[in-house]
Specification:
The protein is α/β, with parallel strands linked by helices. 45% of the residues lie in helices and 19% in strands. The strands form two sheets. It has a five-stranded parallel beta sheet, with helices on both faces. A hairpin with a 2-residue loop joins strand 5 and strand 6. Helix 1 crosses helix 7. The longest helix is centred in the last third of the chain and has 15 residues. The protein is globular, with a radius of gyration of 18 Å.
């Protein structure tokens, strides 16, 4: 099923800068709304429930799985993350755009359910820079950083399954690339027909 709205799915290894890129996109483009995932992990830093994530315990997460509330869910670094089915479907059916920041497992699950979803993978410019970013953010112990780097090798191998790849070396250029992808998708026939229905009707285009 093709929807007039767009579902952008952004994935990357930890430390590649996908959260910063997505947040910057949301600041400059009011037409894109975030999909807020549910997670069983504890909040980090200044994170707030209902803003970055909905923080729930394992029992509540199991209940949502049983009720079919999740479009997809995955175990990542020992914690579970799930995406609300209803929130995404309602938004894109109405012609709106949604950006979903997720791991590669969830992205490929989403692609099976929404074949017209736009999958974007963010790469770091080098292993050295990835390690440096993980260290600089000061959120993880050295052991956790090493685990994230080990997992990143498997994650980077999945980039071949994505529609677009952005190398986040210079942030401004990476953000421009992401905005370009969003703008191009809005020019698709079905998107334009929904957004400019009056023009299509006046021109007699079915």
């Amino acid at each position: 099923m093709h929807h007039p709205g767009n579902l952008f799915v952004v994935a990357a290894p930890s430390g590649s800068g996908k959260s910063t890129l997505v947040n910057a996109l949301l600041e400059v483009d009011s037409g894109v709304e975030p999909s807020i995932s549910h997670t069983t992990r504890a909040p980090r830093g200044q994170e707030k429930d209902g803003r970055e994530y909905f923080f729930i315990d394992n029992e509540a997460f199991d209940a949502k799985i049983a009720a079919g509330d999740f479009l997809e869910w995955a175990l990542v670094h020992g914690n579970r993350y799930g995406t609300s089915r209803q929130a995404i479907e309602a938004r894109i059916a109405a012609g709106g755009d949604v950006v979903l920041e997720i791991d590669w497992q969830g992205a490929l699950q989403i692609q099976k359910l929404f074949p017209d979803a736009i999958l974007v993978f963010v790469l770091p410019p080098s292993w050295e820079e990835l390690r440096s970013r993980l260290t600089r953010r000061g959120e993880d112990t050295p052991d956790v950083i090493e685990l994230r780097l080990t997992n990143a090798r498997e994650e980077l191998a999945q980039a071949q399954h994505f529609d677009y790849v952005i190398i986040n070396e210079v942030f401004e250029r990476a953000l421009f690339d992401l905005k370009t992808i969003v703008h191009a998708q809005r020019l698709r026939y079905i998107a334009q027909k929904s957004a400019r229905a009056d023009t299509f009707q006046a021109l007699g285009i079915a």
